[in-house]
Amino acid sequence: MMRLRLRLATALALLPLLAACGGAAPVAWDGRRGYDGRGDYGYDLAASRAEAGAYRALARPAYSVPGPPEDPWGPHIREAATRFALPESWLREVMRQESGFRLYGADGLPITSPVGAMGLMQVMPATYDRLRPALGLGPDPYEPRDNILAGAAYLRAMYDRFGAPLFLAAYNAGPDRVANYLSGAQILPDETEHYVARIAPRIGYAALRTDVLAAPQPDVLAAPRPADPLDRAYADGGLVAGGWAPPPACPAGYV
């Protein structure tokens, strides 16, 4: 575990330096390829969609399902819950809301949100790019195990920074927006309020408060700095197209 934490911290710390290589003028790293060099870390929707489209084009037409029909992703969920010291229920309920436990949409393609969030945990391309080397993930963000691990790592980082249930708001809207909400500088988007309201009661939280989970692990992922571009890696994302339809009661909708 100590080696994992050190590798994560080292990899994340080196990203801004790596972005300056190759002869280009050194600028802050931005996984959305949208940083304009003037301090604007605004969400680059076009870049996110384009990168998700490239990943989607390389996704496999089918993936192995490790568990039984009643709990298809259970083995991967348990692995991620153990690795990042999270309750399994948190991962299950986030996955239920994000993708309905489905790998593919009605169009038969790997499930992707209108803003580019990918797979079972609806991980944004910039987030996967950043976590991939740190966690030793593969090149396909739609691969169920890697997608769940990436989502769990990000969820843990948001929990360590904001506690429960605000980690849900950060997963949906980004930590920068939640930090602004806590400072009184910005309200949470309606989508995010609905998101928290749907999931929080299912994991034992009825209102916004910041309780602390036993044995916090702040070294699993370094908490993003307020100006870090990762703060908006999930901005406006994490919701599969189709509005706020109630999530399925069980994984019966998976492919």
TrEMBL record:
Domain annotation Transglycosylase SLT: ranges: 77-186
Family that this chain belongs to: Belongs to the transglycosylase Slt family.
EC numbers on record: 3.2.1.-
Keywords: Glycosidase, Hydrolase, Signal
Signal sequence segment: 1-19
Name listed for the protein in its UniProt record: Transglycosylase SLT domain protein
EC class name: hydrolase
Top-level taxon: Bacteria
Molecular function terms, GO-annotated: hydrolase activity, acting on glycosyl bonds
Membrane-spanning residues: none
A UniProt-annotated Pfam family: SLT
